[in-house]
Specification:
This protein has about 180 residues and is mostly beta strands. The chain contains 2 helices and 9 strands, in the order ααβββββββββ. A hairpin with a 4-residue loop joins strand 2 and strand 3.
Length: about 180
């Protein structure tokens, strides 16, 4: 499955509004480079992200991630590939609220809202609530996922090099690289 060009444009334009809310300047060229990822599920409002990558070199990566209200970036990990350790990433909330879930003791009464048909694809429940100015480091090979709160969220990601195409998702139906029709 895929998203339509119209859905992509609408989500991209909406993401630009979220960057404005967070007082993050996005250049004209960057607006056209915003990635809208529905993870091949065609349920963008439930599971998906909108992001712009500033830099991705052999040493570092920096992105801004937009999540619409209650939108989820699905559970995944960044695996070690041969001699290369998996991606290490720090998430820093810039606007709104994001609920990050990582390995560890399950949080009683987590704030997450999951689609009924995908609940089995979420296995880690240690909740880290990120509000503006809060950040959290996720180490390589660590299962994690996150969801925006009721207003949505803008989260900066600072990491070692990004190889998104190598991410390992708990949900076998997920395709990381978006397809637009």
């Amino acid at each position: 499955m895929a998203i339509t060009r119209t859905e992509y444009v609408e989500a991209r334009d909406r993401a630009v509004e979220y960057f404005r809310k967070a007082s993050i300047a996005i250049g004209e060229a960057e607006k056209d480079q915003i990635e809208v990822a529905d993870f091949g599920l065609s349920t963008l409002d439930e599971i998906g992200v909108e992001l712009v990558m500033y830099v991705n070199t052999e040493r570092v990566c920096a992105k801004e991630v937009v999540l619409f209200p209650y939108q989820i970036c699905p559970e995944h990990l960044h695996p070690t590939l041969g001699d290369l350790p998996g991606k290490e990433e720090t998430f820093r909330c810039r606007w709104g609220a994001a609920y990050l879930y990582v390995e560890g003791p399950a949080t009683p009464n987590p704030k997450a809202r999951l689609p009924e048909n995908r609940k089995d694809s979420f296995t880690v429940w240690h909740e880290i609530e990120l509000k503006p100015g809060d950040q959290y480091l996720v180490m390589p090979d660590t299962l994690h996922w996150f969801q925006a709160g009721p207003e949505g969220a803008v989260v900066s990601e600072f990491s070692t090099p990004s190889t998104d195409e190598d991410d390992v998702f708990t949900d076998p139906d997920i395709k990381r690289i978006p397809e637009i029709v």
